[in-house]
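Try it yourself: sequence plus iron/sulfur cluster, in.
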Amino acid sequence: MNYKVQGLNKEDKELLDKGELLPVMEDFYTIQGEGFNTGKAAYFIRIGGCDVGCHWCDVKESWDASIHPLVKVSDVVQKVVESKAKAVVITGGEPLQYNLDYITEAFKSKGIETYIETSGAYPLSGYWDWICLSPKKTMPPLNEVFAVAHELKIIVYNKNDFEWAQEQASKVSSSCYLYLQPEWSKRESMTPVIVDFVKEHQNWMVSLQTHKYMNIP
Ligand code: SF4
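Structure, out:
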C-alpha cells in the first residue's frame, strides 16, 4: 500500500493493509455537486492522506493521514446503510493510497453504488460503478486508471490548462465523459473561458461545483 500513516501498531497496520480500517477525515450525506453525477444524493466518505500536492487544493487538512482517526469500515458502512443513501462517493485526500476492495465489496453487498474521485496516481483497487479521474500535473495518473475512467474531470486554473486537458483526454477510452471545471478561486475569470472552449470543442462539457453555490458540503 502507498499510505503514510505514522505510529501504527502491528494490528492496525494489518487491518489498514486489508482495508478494514481507514483514516476517515469526514463522512456526510449530501448531494454530489460536480461532474457526471451532479445533483444525485450521495454519501461522501473523505479518506485522509494525499501527497499529490496541488497548490490550489481546498482540502489541505486531508493531506496528513495520521491526524485522522482510524475507523472500522464496517461502522462506516452501517452509517451509510442507515442514511438510506443509494450511492457512496469515496474521495480524499487520495483514496487510492489504500486498499479499497473491502469497503467497496461491503457497499456492493448492500446494493449501494460505489463512486470514486481520484487523481489516478496510485494503482486501482476496489469495485466501482463510477470512476471519476481528475488528473493532477504534480503526479500524473497511471495508465491503468486512464483506461477504466468513466469520467475525466480537469480542474482549470489558468489558460495553459486547456492544452494539458486535451493531452489527458487522448489517454482515456472513447466512452469516457470529458469535463472542464473552473478551480473555485478562479471561477469568475475562468468560467467564461471554459464556456468558449466547450463551444469550440463539443466533446467537452462544463462542470461546476454546484454544492458550493448551494452552500452544502
Ligand atoms: S489530489 Fe486532491 S486532495 Fe490531493 S492535493 Fe490535489 S486536490 Fe488536494
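One thing you can check immediately is this: The chain has one domain: 10-213.
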